[in-house]
C-alpha cells in the first residue's frame, strides 16, 4: 500500500470518527498499527481538517452568532464557548508541556472504548430523566472544557462523547443542543491544538521531516468526510439515542482485548 493511499484512508477514518462518539484518536492509533505509525502532528492536523468540516457545517449558526452579538443571548452563548475553550487551554497546556504522549499500545485504548461505552449508556439514561433542556449554563461550559482535557489524555475516550454526555448530565439534556455546543467549542480547541503542534515542530526544526503531501491528503479527506458525517449526525440525533454508538464501542473494545496480544 502506498503511503499516500494509507494517508487517504486515515483521513477518511478521521472524518468519519471525529464527530461520532467513538473516539477518532483511538481509531487512528489502532489503524496505524496496520497502516503505519504517524506523528502526533499528523494526528492533530488531520483532526483540524475535520474541525474545518464542522466550521462549514455550522457556518450559518456561526454567522448568526457573529452578527448578533448585540443580542444578550448570543453574547452569553459566545462567552460560554470562550470559557469552555479557556478551561481546556489552561488545564490542557500544562499537560502537553509536561511531555504527555499518545500510548503506543492498543490495550489502554481498548479499555477506554469499553468504559466510555458503558459511561454513555449510564449518562444518557440519567440525562433523559432531566427532561428536554436546551439551555447551556456556565457550569456546562466549564465541565465541557474539562471533559475535552480528559479525552485528550486518554485516547479512546472520545472528545465528543466525553463533552456531550457531561453537558447532558450537567443540565443541557437535549442531545442536539449539547452536541451543537460541543462541536462549536471544538472549533477553536482543535485549531489551537493544531497551531501549537505546528509551532512545536517548527521550533524543533522538524518541519522538513514531515511528509507534507500525506498530511495534505489526509487533511482534505478528513474535511470532506467530516462535513458529510456531521450533517448526518445532527439530523440523526434529533430522533435517535446514542445507544448504537455505545454498543459499538463496547464490542470493539472487547474484541481488541480478546484478539490483540498484551502490549501490542
Automatic annotation (TrEMBL):
Compartments where located: Cell membrane
Main location: membrane
Membrane topology: Multi-pass membrane protein
Domain of life where this protein originates: Bacteria
Regions that span the bilayer: 41-58, 78-97, 109-127, 181-203, 215-234, 246-263
EC number(s) per entry: 3.6.1.27
Swiss-Prot/TrEMBL keywords: Antibiotic resistance, Cell membrane, Cell shape, Cell wall biogenesis/degradation, Hydrolase, Membrane, Peptidoglycan synthesis, Transmembrane, Transmembrane helix
UniProt entry tagged with the keyword Cell wall biogenesis/degradation: yes
Family annotation (InterPro entries): UppP
Catalyzed reactions per annotation: di-trans,octa-cis-undecaprenyl diphosphate + H2O = di-trans,octa-cis-undecaprenyl phosphate + phosphate + H(+)
Short name of one Pfam family: BacA
Entry similarity comment: Belongs to the UppP family.
Function: Catalyzes the dephosphorylation of undecaprenyl diphosphate (UPP). Confers resistance to bacitracin.
Additional detail: Bacitracin is thought to be involved in the inhibition of peptidoglycan synthesis by sequestering undecaprenyl diphosphate, thereby reducing the pool of lipid carrier available.
Name the UniProt record assigns to this protein: Undecaprenyl-diphosphatase
Naturally occurring in which organism (per UniProt): Pseudoxanthomonas daejeonensis
Taxonomic lineage of the native organism: Bacteria, Pseudomonadati, Pseudomonadota, Gammaproteobacteria, Lysobacterales
Amino acid at each position: 500500500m502506498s503511503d499516500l493511499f494509507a494517508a487517504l484512508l486515515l483521513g477518511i477514518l478521521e472524518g468519519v470518527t471525529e464527530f461520532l462518539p467513538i473516539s477518532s484518536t483511538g481509531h487512528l492509533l489502532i489503524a496505524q498499527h496496520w497502516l503505519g505509525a504517524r506523528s502526533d502532528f499528523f494526528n492533530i492536523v488531520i483532526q483540524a481538517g475535520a474541525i474545518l468540516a464542522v466550521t462549514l457545517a455550522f457556518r450559518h449558526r456561526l454567522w448568526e452568532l457573529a452578527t448578533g452579538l448585540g443580542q444578550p443571548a448570543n453574547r452569553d452563548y459566545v462567552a460560554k464557548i470562550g470559557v469552555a475553550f479557556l478551561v481546556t487551554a489552561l488545564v490542557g497546556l500544562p499537560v502537553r508541556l509536561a511531555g504527555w504522549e499518545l500510548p503506543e499500545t492498543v490495550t489502554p485504548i481498548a479499555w477506554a472504548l469499553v468504559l466510555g461505552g458503558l459511561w454513555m449508556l449510564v449518562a444518557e439514561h440519567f440525562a433523559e430523566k432531566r427532561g428536554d433542556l436546551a439551555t447551556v449554563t456556565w457550569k456546562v461550559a466549564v465541565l465541557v472544557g474539562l471533559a475535552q482535557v480528559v479525552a485528550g489524555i486518554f485516547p479512546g475516550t472520545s472528545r465528543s462523547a466525553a463533552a456531550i454526555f457531561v453537558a447532558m448530565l450537567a443540565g443541557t439534556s437535549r442531545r442536539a443542543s449539547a452536541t451543537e455546543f460541543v462541536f462549536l467549542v471544538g472549533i477553536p480547541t482543535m485549531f489551537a491544538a493544531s497551531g501549537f503542534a505546528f509551532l512545536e515542530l517548527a521550533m524543533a526544526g522538524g518541519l522538513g521531516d514531515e511528509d507534507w503531501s500525506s498530511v495534505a491528503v489526509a487533511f482534505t479527506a478528513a474535511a470532506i468526510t467530516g462535513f458529510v458525517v456531521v450533517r448526518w449526525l445532527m439530523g440523526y440525533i434529533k430522533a435517535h439515542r446514542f445507544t448504537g454508538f455505545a454498543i459499538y464501542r463496547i464490542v470493539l473494545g472487547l474484541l481488541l482485548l480478546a484478539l490483540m496480544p498484551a502490549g501490542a
